Amino acid sequence: MLSVVIPAYNEEEQIAETIRSTITVLESAKLGPVEIIVVDDGSHDQTAAFARKAGARVVSHVNNFGYGRSLKDGIAGC
Description:
- It is built from three helices and three strands; from the N terminus they run βαβαβα.
- By secondary structure, it is of the alpha/beta class.
């Protein structure tokens, strides 16, 4: 399975489209099963809910810890 980690902070307006387009591209490449992991890095909006609805697995931070920590936590969640 190919896992893609997407760090996100207050991205409710774009996260669903980002997930859908990522899945479309990867499935067209025929790389096998694809898993999208969104790390919601302490967002104050509905990023996590929109990501789940779009089919991603979500790891949530209570506070904003930054891009690097989000990548590490997303990888650890694989």
